[in-house]
Write a structure and sequence with these properties.
Layout (H helix, E strand, L loop, with lengths): L13 H12 L4 H9 L14 H7 L6 H8 L11 H13 L5 H5 L13 E2 L1 H11 L24 E2 L32 H17 L6 H14 L11 H12 L1 H6 L12 H5 L9 H11 L3 H6 L13 E2 L11 E3 L1 E6 L6 E6 L5 E5 L13 E4 L1 H14 L4 H8 L3 H10 L9 H29 L5 H7 L1 H10 L1 H7 L15 H20 L9 H8 L2 H6 L5 H10 L3 H19 L5 H8 L3 H12 L1
Antiparallel strand pairs: 1-2, 3-4, 5-6, 6-7, 7-8
Amino acid sequence: MIHFFTDPYKDELIYSAVSRYHFYTGNIDYKDTIEECFGKRTIVPSLEIGSPIDQLAKNISGKYTADYLIKNHTILPYYIPFLPIQRRDEIIEKIKYKDCSGIYNEIGITAGSVCKKKGIYYCPICIKADVDKNGEAYIHREHQLQGIFLCPHHGELLKKYDIVKNDVSRLEFIRLDKRFIDFKRETKIDKNYDIMLKISKDAYYLLQCGTISTDKKSILEKYKNLLNEKGLTTSGNRIKQRELYEEFINYYGEALLNVMDSSIDNDDEYNWLRVITRDVKRTVHPVRHLLLINFLSGNIGEFFDDTREHYNPFGKGFWPCLNKVAKHYRKDVIDNLKITADYKTRLPVGTFSCDCGFVYSRKGPDKKSSDRYRIGRIKTFGGVWEHKLKTYLKENKYGLVELARLMSCDPKTILKFDFILGTNMFKNNSRYINDKKAADETDKLKDYKNCILSNISSNPTATRTEIRSMCKKEYIFIYRNDKKWLYNKLPIQTKKIKPHALVDWNKRDNKLLFIIKNKYEELMDRDKPIRITKSIIGRELGILTALEKNIDKLPNTERYLNEIIETVEDFQIRRCKKIIINKIDKGEPIKRWEIQRIAGIRSEAFEKIKVLYWE
């Protein structure tokens, strides 16, 4: 047991606390420090996490629990909310009782990870405050997060510490020494600064919340709820991936996404934006989750506090019965809701069926609380309503208009049910006579529909034309009175292939080639560069399906597309050239770092461009 161990500072990594312990104790051999803290000499120090944490907690007099150290002095809370429950529990178990081998891959810190940090980072303002307050500097966990470039507290650009792991033994604990700290402030503000600072603050929010009680599955449900609110899902709750991609790109811009190692190739069926919104096994880096959360919600606290369950365009059940004469009027008693899509607008239509027989529908989604009590159409009045009307009719105390008000319906509906119920209180009313005819028409329509259904059932191989010839009279009557029902019930229409409908592919090839050339010139002339891909050309011209499915029949078009389509590297070079030309035209000096920043190209890619093309 260790009898002397200084308390970790706020948000200090375990690695940093152990390095200070080694310094204060005067140990020469780092293996001695490792054994004293972790119980064995074979542990290799880990900057971001440090394990086995349970043994460390026991060795420092039991003052801290393993859970406390994980929550407050590792970067794990940055990853926890976006992991499946089982994997999360397994990772925490390993960190407590085993070493960190394999853990980085499981949480998403891999060699090719997003915005990989090679070294220790710090904020000069934070370090100065630490030295002034404590007399020493320490490693803040919020500054080591992948994808985070700014200090969440001061908005300062994070700096890399001069001493890195490659400069020392792999067993050595690097301690921040103020002699090697650059206290000079370097706040570089560009058009993406505000968003990057927002992402930095959101990442810090995750650290402060510790192990948030969410997981990958519940996060996905939250995404779907918010996507629904933005109109980016279908009535069947499928995500409109193309529209999401376009809105997401418009919101952030490709330059920022490139800097964040989060560019999106919409031609890739498994790009990260598609994966993050699907129920698949692959996990997505936290910074990309933060980008999506900021796009959908704008407030990370509200996002995680939102306890709504699966999105419903009509809110959470139960729903109110709107049968005005029922005892349970406007009370939430309906649990039977069927959602369909409107035939024309594709907006959700909810049909609410109460046990009293009253059935109504309305078009959604509900946008305000009062929508909950709105009726679009009454489909069935039901037994309770009919019984109440019959009672009123027999009392013979009310006129037609007053009855319509009491029953919350049209006067014509009263006349109709007066006839149907056999009370005949308004039989001398001219409307009554007309409504009797309407009732007769309703019975006829029902009989004719049964005739059509019977013939379809008896002749399962018959075509629409054959069914029509069997029931000419019935077919015409239903066509005039309920065409939608007729077309839904008739056999599927067979398509005839007309000889003159054959495509002249040579002609189409030349036509597409002409319009694609014009579109290419227009894209190249745009002020904001756009990467030339088959999908962007196809989408803008409305011919993407033809280019994807029939390209083998369009040899000239295919050849031209292969000539103009850009790789990511080609597009990066074109962006750089455009920036350089603009600077030459304006007589401004050309600085490589400035070209890289304006073009939004990450360092690794820019270095490659310099080597291959710049010199």
